[in-house]
């Protein structure tokens, strides 16, 4: 009986293995058939004589395929030999290429992943576990600025840096509220909300969008009027790729002073930073809306007397839409524990501040035109939270202790209030408005590609996120769409 039982198990294993091979072969054959049909379909729906669609298609047999794919992969976690690859990449050169891609993918059962800048934290814009193609928007990045009407049309493949640069070249008194990382693609950044260091003055990027052009699931080109207000509402904060392909946005430029003021001041535990953080939580969301102060706690290692030590160092990074003298006076009156001095601050133009806020002072404006981050090949994981009540001293002390234990996780706390508290939560598909004192991002990055290092870092950020549970929003615990986090779940 035992021998018969063993024989039965072995037979079942052989049969199961055979079925898996057959199924895999069927899927492979089906994928081959689908991609062949997809490629044959494309010319029928792209009628641009100036831009033949064949010039924008990269299949796996194309020698440039991997180079095009990897050019906009921002996280090395999703750039391994085992990472699922698209059957093809369509790097659209013309709007008709997008229409053809949507129509032909739909008719052949292929999923489309849409990529503009490649900063998707979980790689969703270029990874899928079903047969898929990547629709890459990086060639479509024109920016048309009209200072007279204080508006601009910006294509989805442009970066924030390119937009800032073009605005700065056109005007000294205009800007736009968007992110600090200037290699972000406009298409995805705006559709998920788009926030930056002017959100307390002017709200989010989506609060300053007045029109859009999209391609819907039927391959039609629509604008705000033809798509209707429901869809226009959804793509401003709800993530455009769920509904359509964003072609371009029409934005309303905002007024900025000719001179703004920047500062970055670090404080450590030994300098009483816990007290400063407690005060920051009380004032950062209700202070003058022209002032934005990001707080970034991280572990700082130093040597003293030949011994290695660790502490918490918090950087207070600010942008003030005004002059230095006024800023120092305001800070010392409303946020005195920071002890800001005149030599801590520097005046500059708004466009110069977009460089300063991300990579420091003294860099030429042309760095805004760089489309590839530096360093370009890191591994990382990100999470987010919204905080509605100040975290008490006891909570901060536990958090500092945990961060020192982990070493690898750092935080960004971005104050709300001001304009963000005035916009109704249902005015766009971005609901995180009044009642939040700050939004938090958790970050961990590493260079070592070993499984051990990856597991340790992923566990570390998840443990710290769990520790914050008593101090953040609940029922539900809110998260920011653009800070993709697969731990929350997937559809």
UniProtKB/TrEMBL annotation:
The protein's required cofactors: FAD
GO molecular function annotation: FAD binding; oxidoreductase activity
InterPro entries the record matches: FAD-bd_PCMH, FAD-bd_PCMH-like_sf, FAD-bd_PCMH_sub1, FAD-bd_PCMH_sub2, Oxid_FAD_bind_N
Top-level taxon in the UniProt lineage: Eukaryota
Signal peptide range: 1-29
Pfam families associated with the record: FAD_binding_4
PROSITE patterns, sorted: FAD_PCMH (PS51387)
Entry keyword annotation includes Magnesium: no
Keyword RNA-binding in annotation: no
Domain FAD-binding PCMH-type span(s) in chain numbering: 82-256
Keywords: Signal
Protein name (database record): Berberine bridge enzyme-like 14
Organism lineage string: Eukaryota, Viridiplantae, Streptophyta, Embryophyta, Tracheophyta
Gene name of the record: LOC110787150
